[in-house]
Amino acid sequence: MHVHHSHISHPHKPAGLHDSFRRVLWLGVMLNTAYVLVEAFVGLWLHSLSLVADAGHNLMDVLSLVISLLAFRLLQISPNQQFTYGYRKTTILAALLNAVILLITVGAIGMEAVKRMLHPLAIAGIDVSIVAGCGILINGFTAFLFFRYQHRDLNMKGAFLHMLADALVSVAVVISGLLMAAFGWYWLDPVISFAVLAVILISTWNLLKESLRLSLDGVPRDVDVQALTRRMEQVKGVKNVHHVHVWAMSTLENALTAHVVVDQQLSVAESSRIRHELEAVIRDMHIQHSTFEMETPADACKHGDCCVAAQQTSSSPASP
Q: N or C: less crowded end of the chain, CB within 10 Å?
Protein backbone atom coordinates (compact mmCIF):
# COMPACT_ATOMS: atom_id res chain seq x y z
CA MET A 1 0.00 0.00 0.00
CA HIS A 2 1.52 3.30 -1.03
CA VAL A 3 1.67 6.38 1.12
CA HIS A 4 -1.40 8.58 1.00
CA HIS A 5 -0.58 12.22 1.37
CA SER A 6 -3.41 14.65 1.89
CA HIS A 7 -3.51 18.33 2.65
CA ILE A 8 -6.68 19.54 4.32
CA SER A 9 -7.29 23.27 4.29
CA HIS A 10 -10.11 24.74 6.30
CA PRO A 11 -11.84 28.04 5.67
CA HIS A 12 -10.01 31.12 6.85
CA LYS A 13 -11.46 33.29 9.56
CA PRO A 14 -14.41 35.24 8.12
CA ALA A 15 -13.56 38.59 6.62
CA GLY A 16 -16.18 40.13 8.89
CA LEU A 17 -14.06 39.27 11.93
CA HIS A 18 -11.05 41.05 10.47
CA ASP A 19 -13.26 44.03 9.64
CA SER A 20 -14.49 44.16 13.24
CA PHE A 21 -10.90 44.07 14.48
CA ARG A 22 -9.96 46.94 12.21
CA ARG A 23 -12.94 49.07 13.18
CA VAL A 24 -12.32 48.89 16.92
CA LEU A 25 -8.57 49.33 16.41
CA TRP A 26 -9.11 52.47 14.33
CA LEU A 27 -11.46 53.90 16.95
CA GLY A 28 -8.92 53.09 19.65
CA VAL A 29 -6.16 54.81 17.65
CA MET A 30 -8.17 58.00 17.19
CA LEU A 31 -9.31 58.27 20.81
CA ASN A 32 -5.92 57.51 22.32
CA THR A 33 -3.98 59.73 19.89
CA ALA A 34 -6.09 62.70 20.94
CA TYR A 35 -5.57 61.87 24.61
CA VAL A 36 -1.80 61.38 24.22
CA LEU A 37 -1.42 64.83 22.68
CA VAL A 38 -3.39 66.48 25.48
CA GLU A 39 -1.71 64.49 28.26
CA ALA A 40 1.82 65.08 26.95
CA PHE A 41 1.21 68.83 26.53
CA VAL A 42 -0.27 69.25 30.01
CA GLY A 43 2.38 67.00 31.56
CA LEU A 44 5.22 69.06 30.09
CA TRP A 45 3.46 72.30 31.06
CA LEU A 46 2.96 71.15 34.65
CA HIS A 47 6.35 69.37 34.87
CA SER A 48 4.51 66.16 35.84
CA LEU A 49 6.59 63.09 35.12
CA SER A 50 3.69 60.78 35.95
CA LEU A 51 1.61 62.41 33.21
CA VAL A 52 4.50 62.39 30.74
CA ALA A 53 5.22 58.74 31.60
CA ASP A 54 1.59 57.81 31.10
CA ALA A 55 1.52 59.77 27.82
CA GLY A 56 4.59 57.85 26.67
CA HIS A 57 2.92 54.60 27.62
CA ASN A 58 -0.23 55.60 25.75
CA LEU A 59 1.82 56.65 22.72
CA MET A 60 3.41 53.21 22.59
CA ASP A 61 -0.05 51.69 22.80
CA VAL A 62 -1.18 53.84 19.87
CA LEU A 63 1.83 52.67 17.87
CA SER A 64 1.06 49.06 18.79
CA LEU A 65 -2.52 49.51 17.57
CA VAL A 66 -1.23 50.94 14.28
CA ILE A 67 1.15 47.99 13.90
CA SER A 68 -1.71 45.58 14.57
CA LEU A 69 -3.81 47.33 11.93
CA LEU A 70 -0.99 46.92 9.43
CA ALA A 71 -0.64 43.26 10.33
CA PHE A 72 -4.34 42.58 9.80
CA ARG A 73 -4.12 44.33 6.44
CA LEU A 74 -1.20 42.12 5.39
CA LEU A 75 -3.14 39.09 6.63
CA GLN A 76 -5.62 39.55 3.79
CA ILE A 77 -3.00 39.57 1.02
CA SER A 78 -3.25 36.36 -1.00
CA PRO A 79 -0.36 33.85 -1.02
CA ASN A 80 2.05 34.03 -3.96
CA GLN A 81 5.03 32.15 -5.39
CA GLN A 82 7.46 33.80 -2.96
CA PHE A 83 5.21 33.68 0.13
CA THR A 84 3.12 30.53 -0.22
CA TYR A 85 1.52 31.08 3.20
CA GLY A 86 0.85 34.73 2.44
CA TYR A 87 1.72 37.26 5.16
CA ARG A 88 -0.12 35.67 8.08
CA LYS A 89 3.02 35.60 10.21
CA THR A 90 3.08 39.41 10.35
CA THR A 91 0.40 39.33 13.05
CA ILE A 92 2.81 37.38 15.29
CA LEU A 93 5.71 39.67 14.47
CA ALA A 94 3.48 42.67 15.23
CA ALA A 95 2.69 41.29 18.68
CA LEU A 96 6.40 40.71 19.33
CA LEU A 97 7.31 44.21 18.14
CA ASN A 98 4.64 45.72 20.39
CA ALA A 99 6.12 43.96 23.41
CA VAL A 100 9.66 45.11 22.55
CA ILE A 101 8.51 48.72 22.09
CA LEU A 102 6.89 48.69 25.52
CA LEU A 103 10.05 47.34 27.14
CA ILE A 104 12.10 50.13 25.56
CA THR A 105 9.59 52.61 26.94
CA VAL A 106 10.04 51.13 30.42
CA GLY A 107 13.79 51.78 30.29
CA ALA A 108 13.46 55.38 29.11
CA ILE A 109 10.82 56.37 31.67
CA GLY A 110 12.61 54.51 34.45
CA MET A 111 15.79 56.53 33.98
CA GLU A 112 13.84 59.80 34.18
CA ALA A 113 11.92 58.61 37.25
CA VAL A 114 15.19 57.94 39.10
CA LYS A 115 16.35 61.50 38.38
CA ARG A 116 13.01 62.91 39.58
CA MET A 117 13.23 60.89 42.80
CA LEU A 118 16.50 62.65 43.59
CA HIS A 119 15.16 66.07 42.64
CA PRO A 120 11.36 66.30 43.08
CA LEU A 121 9.51 69.22 41.48
CA ALA A 122 6.44 71.07 42.73
CA ILE A 123 3.41 70.02 40.68
CA ALA A 124 -0.18 71.28 40.36
CA GLY A 125 -1.86 68.14 41.67
CA ILE A 126 -5.45 69.10 40.85
CA ASP A 127 -4.63 69.68 37.18
CA VAL A 128 -2.82 66.34 37.06
CA SER A 129 -5.88 64.61 38.52
CA ILE A 130 -8.23 66.23 35.99
CA VAL A 131 -6.15 65.10 33.01
CA ALA A 132 -5.72 61.60 34.44
CA GLY A 133 -9.46 61.43 35.06
CA CYS A 134 -10.03 61.93 31.33
CA GLY A 135 -7.61 59.06 30.78
CA ILE A 136 -9.76 56.77 32.92
CA LEU A 137 -12.74 57.45 30.67
CA ILE A 138 -10.89 57.10 27.36
CA ASN A 139 -8.76 54.08 28.27
CA GLY A 140 -11.65 52.37 30.03
CA PHE A 141 -13.95 52.81 27.03
CA THR A 142 -11.25 51.56 24.64
CA ALA A 143 -10.61 48.51 26.83
CA PHE A 144 -14.36 47.83 26.75
CA LEU A 145 -14.28 47.89 22.94
CA PHE A 146 -11.47 45.32 22.86
CA PHE A 147 -12.86 43.07 25.61
CA ARG A 148 -15.05 40.89 23.38
CA TYR A 149 -12.15 40.14 21.02
CA GLN A 150 -9.35 39.46 23.54
CA HIS A 151 -9.78 35.67 23.49
CA ARG A 152 -9.84 35.46 19.69
CA ASP A 153 -6.49 37.01 18.77
CA LEU A 154 -3.13 37.65 20.45
CA ASN A 155 -2.88 41.22 19.16
CA MET A 156 -6.37 42.05 20.39
CA LYS A 157 -5.53 40.53 23.76
CA GLY A 158 -2.43 42.70 23.94
CA ALA A 159 -4.45 45.79 23.03
CA PHE A 160 -7.05 45.01 25.69
CA LEU A 161 -4.41 44.48 28.39
CA HIS A 162 -2.66 47.74 27.47
CA MET A 163 -5.87 49.77 27.60
CA LEU A 164 -6.98 48.18 30.87
CA ALA A 165 -3.55 48.81 32.41
CA ASP A 166 -3.68 52.43 31.22
CA ALA A 167 -7.07 52.93 32.88
CA LEU A 168 -5.77 51.52 36.18
CA VAL A 169 -2.65 53.66 35.99
CA SER A 170 -4.81 56.74 35.40
CA VAL A 171 -6.69 55.92 38.60
CA ALA A 172 -3.38 55.91 40.49
CA VAL A 173 -2.34 59.21 38.91
CA VAL A 174 -5.65 60.80 39.94
CA ILE A 175 -5.11 59.71 43.54
CA SER A 176 -1.49 60.91 43.58
CA GLY A 177 -2.53 64.27 42.12
CA LEU A 178 -5.07 64.78 44.88
CA LEU A 179 -2.51 63.84 47.55
CA MET A 180 0.08 66.20 46.08
CA ALA A 181 -2.47 69.02 46.08
CA ALA A 182 -3.55 68.30 49.65
CA PHE A 183 -0.23 67.52 51.36
CA GLY A 184 2.53 68.64 48.97
CA TRP A 185 3.87 65.09 48.58
CA TYR A 186 5.64 65.78 45.30
CA TRP A 187 7.77 62.68 45.66
CA LEU A 188 4.61 60.77 44.72
CA ASP A 189 5.02 61.84 41.08
CA PRO A 190 8.12 59.68 40.36
CA VAL A 191 6.76 56.93 42.63
CA ILE A 192 3.62 56.71 40.49
CA SER A 193 5.90 56.64 37.45
CA PHE A 194 7.52 53.50 38.84
CA ALA A 195 4.04 52.05 39.37
CA VAL A 196 3.30 52.75 35.71
CA LEU A 197 6.46 50.86 34.74
CA ALA A 198 5.51 47.90 36.94
CA VAL A 199 2.08 47.69 35.30
CA ILE A 200 3.65 47.86 31.84
CA LEU A 201 6.06 45.03 32.68
CA ILE A 202 3.34 42.80 34.11
CA SER A 203 0.94 43.35 31.22
CA THR A 204 3.70 42.92 28.63
CA TRP A 205 5.50 39.85 29.97
CA ASN A 206 2.98 37.22 28.85
CA LEU A 207 2.54 38.96 25.51
CA LEU A 208 6.32 38.92 25.00
CA LYS A 209 6.64 35.23 25.92
CA GLU A 210 3.77 34.07 23.73
CA SER A 211 4.69 36.18 20.70
CA LEU A 212 8.35 35.11 20.93
CA ARG A 213 7.34 31.45 21.16
CA LEU A 214 5.04 31.72 18.15
CA SER A 215 7.65 33.60 16.12
CA LEU A 216 9.99 30.64 16.73
CA ASP A 217 7.27 28.22 15.53
CA GLY A 218 6.66 26.95 19.05
CA VAL A 219 3.45 25.13 19.90
CA PRO A 220 0.62 27.63 20.57
CA ARG A 221 -0.38 27.88 24.21
CA ASP A 222 -3.91 26.55 23.64
CA VAL A 223 -2.70 23.33 21.96
CA ASP A 224 -1.70 20.25 23.99
CA VAL A 225 0.30 18.05 21.60
CA GLN A 226 0.17 14.94 23.79
CA ALA A 227 -3.59 15.18 24.25
CA LEU A 228 -3.97 15.89 20.54
CA THR A 229 -1.95 12.79 19.61
CA ARG A 230 -3.96 10.59 21.99
CA ARG A 231 -7.25 11.78 20.51
CA MET A 232 -6.01 11.20 16.96
CA GLU A 233 -4.94 7.65 17.89
CA GLN A 234 -8.45 6.97 19.21
CA VAL A 235 -9.86 7.32 15.69
CA LYS A 236 -10.95 3.89 14.46
CA GLY A 237 -8.40 2.45 12.02
CA VAL A 238 -5.47 4.57 13.28
CA LYS A 239 -2.69 2.48 14.78
CA ASN A 240 -0.21 5.23 15.59
CA VAL A 241 0.44 8.94 15.09
CA HIS A 242 4.00 10.29 15.11
CA HIS A 243 6.18 13.10 13.75
CA VAL A 244 3.55 15.57 14.95
CA HIS A 245 4.41 19.23 14.36
CA VAL A 246 2.16 22.11 15.39
CA TRP A 247 2.84 25.81 14.84
CA ALA A 248 1.04 29.12 14.46
CA MET A 249 0.53 30.49 10.97
CA SER A 250 -0.82 33.72 12.47
CA THR A 251 -2.33 34.88 15.74
CA LEU A 252 -5.63 33.50 14.42
CA GLU A 253 -4.64 30.23 12.71
CA ASN A 254 -2.67 27.13 13.68
CA ALA A 255 -1.30 24.36 11.46
CA LEU A 256 -0.30 20.71 11.90
CA THR A 257 1.62 18.00 10.04
CA ALA A 258 1.65 14.37 11.17
CA HIS A 259 2.41 10.83 10.04
CA VAL A 260 -0.59 8.56 10.58
CA VAL A 261 -0.08 4.78 10.58
CA VAL A 262 -3.22 2.89 9.47
CA ASP A 263 -4.14 -0.74 8.86
CA GLN A 264 -2.52 -2.57 5.95
CA GLN A 265 -5.68 -2.82 3.84
CA LEU A 266 -7.93 0.22 3.61
CA SER A 267 -10.55 1.06 1.05
CA VAL A 268 -10.76 4.54 -0.42
CA ALA A 269 -13.95 5.14 1.56
CA GLU A 270 -12.32 4.00 4.82
CA SER A 271 -9.26 6.16 4.22
CA SER A 272 -11.50 9.15 3.54
CA ARG A 273 -13.46 8.49 6.75
CA ILE A 274 -10.26 8.45 8.80
CA ARG A 275 -9.09 11.73 7.33
CA HIS A 276 -12.45 13.40 8.01
CA GLU A 277 -12.45 12.18 11.62
CA LEU A 278 -8.88 13.42 12.11
CA GLU A 279 -9.94 16.80 10.75
CA ALA A 280 -12.75 16.95 13.31
CA VAL A 281 -10.31 16.15 16.11
CA ILE A 282 -7.83 18.87 15.21
CA ARG A 283 -10.59 21.45 14.75
CA ASP A 284 -11.65 20.80 18.35
CA MET A 285 -8.01 21.35 19.37
CA HIS A 286 -7.83 24.83 17.78
CA ILE A 287 -6.01 23.79 14.59
CA GLN A 288 -7.36 25.03 11.24
CA HIS A 289 -4.84 23.66 8.69
CA SER A 290 -3.37 20.17 8.48
CA THR A 291 -1.31 17.78 6.37
CA PHE A 292 -1.57 14.04 7.12
CA GLU A 293 0.83 11.52 5.62
CA MET A 294 -1.00 8.22 5.71
CA GLU A 295 1.32 5.21 6.22
CA THR A 296 1.06 1.48 6.70
CA PRO A 297 3.33 -0.24 9.26
CA ALA A 298 5.53 -1.35 6.35
CA ASP A 299 5.81 2.21 5.08
CA ALA A 300 6.79 3.40 8.56
CA CYS A 301 9.56 0.80 8.68
CA LYS A 302 10.92 2.03 5.37
CA HIS A 303 11.23 5.49 6.93
CA GLY A 304 12.96 4.13 10.01
CA ASP A 305 9.88 4.44 12.23
CA CYS A 306 9.27 0.75 12.97
CA CYS A 307 9.60 1.14 16.72
CA VAL A 308 7.37 4.19 16.78
CA ALA A 309 4.73 2.58 14.59
CA ALA A 310 4.74 -0.60 16.65
CA GLN A 311 4.51 1.17 19.99
CA GLN A 312 0.73 1.53 19.89
CA THR A 313 0.20 -2.10 18.94
CA SER A 314 2.64 -3.53 21.48
CA SER A 315 1.25 -1.43 24.32
CA SER A 316 -2.35 -2.43 23.58
CA PRO A 317 -3.86 -5.39 25.50
CA ALA A 318 -3.97 -8.63 23.58
CA SER A 319 -7.28 -9.60 22.07
CA PRO A 320 -9.03 -12.54 23.76
A: C
Task: List Cβ neighbours of 85 (8 Å cut-off, separation of 6 or more).
Answer: 79, 249
Mean pLDDT of 250-265: 84
What 3-state class would DSSP assign to 294? strand
**259 C-beta neighbours (distance < 10 Å), count:** 20
pLDDT for the residue numbered 122? 64
Report the C-alpha gap between 163 and 140 in whole angstroms. 7
Q: Across all residues in the chain, what is the average pLDDT?
A: 77
Closest CA to 90 of 247, 222, 252: 252
Whether residue 206 contacts residue 160, with contact meaning beta carbons closer than 8 Å, is answered with no
How far is Cα 257 from Cα 270, in angstroms, rounded to an integer? 20
Beta pairing, strands 254-262 & 238-248? antiparallel
Residues in contact with 252: Cβ distance below 8 Å, sequence separation at least 6, in sequence order: 13, 75, 88, 91, 152, 153
Helix (H, G, I), strand (E, B) or coil at 257: strand
- In Å, the largest CA–CA distance within the chain is 87
Q: Closest Cα partner for 136 from 61, 32, 25? A: 32
Give the chain's end-to-end CA distance (angstroms, integer): 28
**159: amino acid identity, one letter:** A
Tens digit of each residue's pLDDT (9 = 90 or more) over 218-252: 998 888 899 999 999 999 888 889 999 999 888 77
Does residue 60 contact residue 203 with C-beta atoms inside 8 Å?
no
pTM for the full predicted model: 0.63
What distance in Å separates the CA atoms of residue 118 and residue 4, rounded to the nearest whole number? 71
Domains in the chain (CATH in brackets) are 15-215 (1.20.1510.10), 220-315 (3.30.70.1350)
